Amino acid sequence: MLSSVLSREECAKCRFCCSFRRQSLWETPLFDSETVSRLTEKYPSAKFKPRAGAFTIDIDDKYETDDPEEEALCPFNVNGCVLDSADKPFDCSIWPLRVMSADGGLAICLTPTCPVISGKPTDVMRELAEGEVGDKVIGYAAAHPEMIKEYKEGFPILRRFAEK
Ligand code: SF4
Ligand code: SF4
């Protein structure tokens, strides 16, 4: 969805948003139950756990040290994400945009840590959020409230929607 600003090659080299420190586990992507059933058949070693009406990857046992900076990789990243568009979580398909619930409504926010996007003017991402991409993103989010995370400080808001 964001191929106009981010290439597959750039992401395959980076992988930053596919690995998680313990304190970043709130960021792991959410999946619906149908997708979890499909993925459990295709990838029996991948583990999931329930979270707030949806499911997320369970990588708790992937950490090998007590170092809070240690990163654990998503089980679906093998030299890049192996999931096709039908199975890819909403969170990942719009990253580094995010839809978060904020002030009683929804907001399209920008994740500040993507090294490629942080090198681009914020206006480029604001235009995306305000245009057709943003309309699609918010349409999906409004229909799937279980896929929406709570707003976190530090994420610039690009577009707000008053109604959930
Ligand atoms: S942090 Fe940005 S460049 Fe890196 S993998 Fe994620 S979206 Fe791609
Ligand atoms: S599902 Fe794919 S894109 Fe999302 S975190 Fe896992 S490997 Fe990365």
Describe this structure in words.
- The protein is α+β, with helices and mostly antiparallel strands.
- The protein has two domains: 75 residues, no CATH class; 69 residues, no CATH class.
- Helices cover 26% and strands 20% of the residues.
- It is globular.
- The mean pLDDT is 91.
- Bound molecules: iron/sulfur cluster (SF4) (2 copies).
Topology:
Blueprint: H1 8-14, E1 19-20, E2 30-31, H2 33-42, E3 48-51, E4 54-57, E5 72-73, H3 90-94, E6 97-102, E7 105-110, H4 122-130, H5 132-143, E8 149-150, E9 157-161
Parallel strand pairs: 6-8
Antiparallel strand pairs: 1-5, 2-4, 3-4, 6-7, 7-9
The structure holds iron/sulfur cluster (2 copies).
One iron/sulfur cluster binds at residues 18, 29, 74, 76-77, 81, 83, 89, 92.
What's the SSE pattern?
HEEHEEEHEEHHEE
Distance from N terminus to C terminus (CA atoms, Å) equals: 22 Å
What portion of residues belong to β-strands?
15-25%
List unreliable stretches of 5+ residues: none
Helix content: 25-40%
Strand line-up across the major sheet: 8-6-7-9
Listed once per kind, the bound small molecules are: iron/sulfur cluster
Number of helices: 5
